[in-house]
Specification:
With about 400 residues, this protein is α+β, with helices and mostly antiparallel strands. The chain contains twelve helices and eleven strands. The protein is elongated and about 110 Å long. It starts with a helix and ends with a helix.
């Protein structure tokens, strides 16, 4: 029998049992939609985490700090030595001072972080409202949400406002605290969302050149290539620094998310197994109903393989349609769920977020999976149909 004839007979047989096939496809779609919904939720959570805490540069950056032994300190001389290590592209130090912020005659204690303009990109995070520093910026400041709450304003309202800063310096010999007044005003260009954190402000080192910095508390060391990360890390450790890397955290987080995706996928597979059993049952009933028809087909020259492929074709098409339907149901359900979550987030004063992510390769995988399950589910009924004796099939009632 020609392939085109097999396809024609397959579709005609499916059309003759529309209700049964419709419910079988629907059951398959629900199972596939469940897998897509759950696994895409895992992909979405992973994607949101990576987008919020990483940049391309941050994955090549090492965070260093002096050990508590104080054998080595992060001063200008040490920073120059670090910058000369083979494989190091740039060094971004961070100095921390207690300070006072003043806005419209209201003052409050805060922590001043002196950083380079590219510090946020090396850190892997950026302001949730506004922007981070540019090299051309002058007298700009970034604050966290705790600073904004001190003045009873929203982040959007605080953006663009001008503040004044006073830095507290402690004399190491006498312990006396001195005030370092800064006459210039600073414009707020970004707000970091850090719920529960202490008030923090970030200013470029270039804007406070007159502020005496004897040593830095932290530094970020960016390497040129990922292959040089290990060698640079070992060199920094040998110099006496405590070294950590965001890439290590991301790697661990990815492992956790892969486990979550597998667990979520297992729940969906259970539903798929139930749907596959339903398809086997449907094909078995179809075999019993069409036993006489199979006998007639064999009598007029159809081979056992023709009968087998006829049943397999119906099963595969049912699985394929179930996959397409499952993708539609899964994406639709994800959008509805995401919409409801964002309504709740807005009501509670939070930010909107896209919880789901549908990689194109995973969509293709879902279609192939449903088609393959359809093929497997139809194999045994098709094999049984192919083995029917033509005479016994004609006499079957």
């Amino acid at each position: 029998m020609k392939v085109i004839d097999l396809f024609h007979l397959t579709f005609e047989n499916l059309k003759s049992r529309k209700s049964r096939i419709l419910f079988t496809v629907l059951g398959f779609s629900v199972a596939i939609g469940t897998i897509l919904f759950l696994v895409s939720l895992g992909f979405g959570l992973q994607r949101n985490l990576l987008q919020r805490v990483t940049t391309e540069e941050s994955l090549l950056t090492l965070d260093i700090a002096p050990a508590e032994s104080e054998v080595i300190s992060l001063n200008e001389e040490t920073l120059k030595k670090i910058s000369k290590i083979p494989g190091v592209e740039k060094v971004s130090p961070q100095a921390i001072f207690p300070a006072q912020i003043t806005f419209k005659e209201i003052s409050s204690q805060t922590t001043l972080n002196l950083v380079t303009y590219d510090w946020f990109r090396l850190s892997g995070f950026a302001p949730t409202i506004g922007r981070d520093f540019k090299k051309s910026d002058r007298n700009k400041v970034i604050v966290n949400s705790s600073v904004v709450s001190l003045f009873n304003l929203s982040p959007e309202e605080f953006l663009g406002k001008e503040i004044k800063l006073t830095v507290f310096l402690t004399d190491e010999e006498t312990g006396e605290v001195k005030f370092f007044g800064i006459p210039e005003k600073f414009e707020v260009i970004g707000v970091l969302e850090e719920a529960g954190a202490s008030p923090q402000i970030y200013v470029r080192v270039a804007d406070l050149k007159d502020l005496p910095i004897k040593e830095y508390q932290f530094a970020k060391v960016k390497v040129r290539r990922n292959e040089e990360m290990k060698e640079v890390r070992e060199k920094l450790i040998s110099m006496g620094f405590l070294v950590s890397a965001l890439s290590d955290t991301i790697e661990q987080a990815n492992k956790i998310f892969r486990i979550i995706q597998v667990v979520l996928g297992i729940f969906g597979v259970v539903a798929l197994v139930v749907a596959a059993i339903g398809l086997v049952n449907t094909m078995t009933i179809t075999l019993l109903e069409r036993t006489n028809e199979i006998g007639i087909m064999r009598a007029i020259g159809a081979s056992p393989s023709d009968v087998k492929w006829l049943f397999l074709g119906e099963s595969v098409i049912t699985g394929f349609l179930g996959g397409i339907g499952g993708i539609i149901l899964g994406i639709f359900g994800a959008h509805i769920f995401n919409w409801l979550v964002n309504i709740l987030a807005r009501a509670l004063g939070g930010r909107e977020i896209d919880l789901f992510y549908f990689p194109f390769w995973f969509i293709l995988f879902i279609i192939l999976l449903s088609t393959l399950v359809g093929l497997v589910a139809g194999f045994f009924p098709a094999r049984r149909a192919a083995k029917l004796n033509p005479l016994e099939a004609l006499r079957y009632k």
